[in-house]
Amino acid sequence: MSQATSEQDAGKTWRSDFVASVVVFLVALPLCMGIAIASGAPPAAGLITGIIGGLVVGWIAGSPLQVSGPAAGLSVIVWDLIQTHGFAALGAIVLIAGLIQVVAGAFRLGQWFRAVSPAVIQGMLAGIGVLIFASQFHVMVDDSPVKSGLVNLATIPAAIWKGIMPMDGSVHQQAALIGLLTIVGIIVWQFMPRRARVLPAPLIAVVVGTVAAHFMAPEIRRIDVPANLLSAVQLPSLTGVEATWATLLLAALALAVVASAETLLCATAVDQMHRGPRTKYDRELIAQGVGNMACGLVGGLPMTGVIVRSSANVDAGGKTRMSAILHGGWLLIFVALLPGVLQLIPTAALAALLVYTGYKLVNIQAIRNLKQYGSGEVFVYAATLGGVVAIDLLSGVLIGLGLALLKLLYTFSHLDIEIREEGDKVTLDLYGTATMLRLPKLAGVLEKVPASCELHVRMDHLQYIDHACLNLLADWERQHHATGGRLVIDWEELRAKFQTPAPGDAAAKKARAA
After folding, report:
1. Please, what are the domains in the chain?
2. pTM
3. pLDDT digits (tens, 9 = 90+) for 111-132
4. Which residues are CB-neighbours of 345 under 8 A, at least 6 positions away?
């Protein structure tokens, strides 16, 4: 390749990354602040994390086109941590969680964080979506949510009533109107011509809500953003925190596990969107750990790779890591030079954006996809969702993981046998998995087979058969043959399906040895 051609390609890449970075910045700006509000943290904390996600993680990320920042999926955990230990302690917890991620990446554990059942992940995201929807619905009418997700969910009708009655133009009604206009703006913008949709729907919706609030709802709450971002920097401190180190370490470990799983699953999804370099999972895990350590040091929220911003990056034509890096630069420049613009944004508009985000997290299509793999997957999904909403996120995930493990054990220990007799011919149909755990059951059925008959064993619907069961069939064949009977098994088909040599096939062994 000539130098001129290389420079042309670099120029095209730079232009694509520049355009993509602007689009990602416009998507990230309202989401960073909205997720901070949903987490019970100052909006500036979300902006700090978005900046670090671009300017720090972007340089060293193992998934070049993935964009990192504050994630809706962590907002429930962060909310609980702040309510339990205080915002000052959050920095120390995030710092420790980042250190855990760095160590895990250094020990090449990146792939292990992906070893989570899709039903558990989808159930976790749906549960988070329900909690975000329920809590931010109250914020959307300029009210305050409570800690309990079930109470927030149950009191949504009261919030709706507060936003409607009495018709006296109260602050609650003004906020509800702005929230409604914001959601309508998101939905309508998705039907605009493709060229117009270069500007992201969340940004347009927040702009609509802000302009409408200026003329129609002057009394509702606005975003509290400091005029100087440095004033929002807060070093980690445990002063006044009553929790033990063991409690903080456990909280950091839970945060690290959830953040890592969400990041690496997001990276896998991003890989499917483009044909560029594939994700280096251990490097990505280390990059996320470095980013979270930086966030913990300066008072930011914890970060993950985020699918909304990452997909916007790919769709807008991002080619290299520069698009993610530049988006962090735009965030820093905007917050440093135009904080007054952010202070005009009504809280109700950002809450409405999160209400819509929570609704989207409850992905109905995901349930349909899981149903293709059996009702057990849907049950694990529902149990995880219910646990997250009714108890807390960690408990819901543990419930889901426990049920997924029980389902796996059931799958690898379940064997159904159907017997059909037609004169001197007997057919056994095997379903499930034939392992040593089910060897007594298979042996018991074989003992009932009449002597001198011709037994056909069909394994078309068998998912797995182990060496112990194959040896049982081989031993039983010799005994049955001595009584004048015959065992018929398509050994070639069995080898093709399970890549297992036929037991007792001496001729085949000699042929392979020759």
Report:
1. 10-405 (no CATH), 415-513 (3.30.750.24)
2. 0.74
3. 887 677 888 878 887 888 898 8
4. 30, 33, 206, 209, 210, 222, 223
